[in-house]
Amino acid sequence: MHETVLITGASGLIGRHLTFLLKEKGYRVLTLVRNPEGEGSFCWDPENEYIDTEALNQTDHIVHLAGASIGDMRWSAVRKEEILSSRVRSCALLYLKCLEGGIHLKSFISASAIGFYGDEGTFTESDPAGVGFLASVCEQWEQAADRFEQAGIRTVKVRTGIVLAADGGILPQMAKTVRMGLGTSFGNGKQYLSWIHIMDLCNIYLQAIKNKSWSGAYNAVAPEPRTNRTFIKELARYFHKPYWPISIPALPIRLALGERSVLLLKGCQVHSSRLTESAFDFKFPKLSSALMDLFPECN
DSSP state, 279? Predict the structure, then answer.
């Protein structure tokens, strides 16, 4: 029998691509969603601590991707709590229901983010959590996942950078702006974008499921981090559009976005040391190759 993978957050960008890849590789995929539709779809409601445990009874691996978006709303106190609880409480609920049901998982794979390290600096997986709201969220998120490890279940935490995809995430909007001839950087342009192609990210999750030697945290970023300025310049060059050297000042961005402005004005240079050690094969190690794959019509 094929192994079964249960995915939370399956309707999101990563979840959609990962579901397709796992099915292509012969895995049986189940999903936990608020409104189940069709075979393999099961109900859960983390706020009310409910899971249809029939899904857990059939599962070999859990991939936990669920979490409220950090980029689509202003960070009010209420929104911050939603961002945190949607990750931590849902993970705690999965652990509790697996414990109560005596579920013997082969692995628990949890999303995390490079926001774990804070807003600025250069980091590998051996570095501790940073300071700030996102760092605190990621640290508590990973602590919730670590309960599976403490229970003897192999646990992998995927600290994800900026995901590049043609059908979602930040890249389509950036590409649209550049294609309009409005390519320019934000703030001083020196903040890093540690990015990864969506297919490489899905293959990292696939290896986390397959490879029994994988455990702990892995930085899911390509080997070529870019500054905001050089990233936008590369986009402009690829689309044969101008790059304007006059950046958008930080002040209006802060006024418009509030605390959420760190997503545009700050950034870490993160290295995927553990993926390199494990000889992970990046299909898109360079930004140029990623853009050629995602926007082949411009090649």
Answer: T
